[in-house]
Amino acid sequence: MEKKGFPYLIKSCSLLNNKGYNFRCRIVGEGPDRSALEYLIKDHKLEDKVYLMPYAESEELKKIYSETDIFVLPCIIARNGDRDAIPTVLVDVMAIGIPVISTNISGIPELIDNGENGFLVPEQSVEELAEAIEKLISDKELRINLGKKGIEKVKRQFDANDNVSVYTKLLN
């Protein structure tokens, strides 16, 4: 899907690869843009770094997340205006302490406080996306701290019991 911004992630991976970083990027899911993404990966000579993985069910996602150091979702506003509000996958990975990088569009800044519990970059900015990834690749302590603060934010904002309690009080 165009709104996920994966071409910008691949191009950022190319910049990181050119700087000599050792990494593995996995893009999970199927979609109509798969052949274009395959072409970009090949064009940037990233076949040994960037992998397109099929759609994964919950149990497989848990395994993938357990092997993940950084989660990047460079959302964009698609040409037809389509966009993610607050992608639930960001909430999911923050809830388990994975540091996140996304873009400052739609409702994403309501979830990610730039520099506090993740990083926000401008949409379509390959260089700034690569810089944010580079910061997290290079600094394990920063990854841990952002992950911990991500857990706190999700608990504070998305705890079902707290939200029901607030909603109930509003109705009374």
Walk me through what this model shows:
The chain has helices spanning 6-18, 34-43, 58-66, 88-95, 108-111, 126-138, 140-158, 160-171, and strands at residues 25-28, 50-53, 71-73, 100-103, 119-121. The protein contains eight helices and five strands; from the N terminus they run αβαβαβαβαβααα. It has 172 residues and is mainly alpha-helical. The protein has a three-stranded parallel beta sheet, with helices on both faces.
Q: From the structure provided, what is the oligomeric state, counting identical versus distinct chains?
A: single chain
User: Please, what is the average pLDDT?
Assistant: 92
Q: Total strand count, please? A: 5
Shape: globular
Distance between the termini: 42 Å
Strand content: 5-15%
Labels describing this entry:
172 residues, three-stranded parallel beta sheet, mainly alpha, single chain, two-stranded parallel ribbon, globular
Question: Short description, anyone?
Answer:
The chain has 172 residues and is mainly alpha-helical. The protein is built from eight helices and five strands.
List the helices and strands and how they pair.
Layout lengths: L5 H13 L6 E4 L5 H10 L6 E4 L4 H9 L4 E3 L14 H8 L4 E4 L4 H4 L7 E3 L4 H13 L1 H19 L1 H12 L1
Helix pairs in contact: 1-2, 1-6
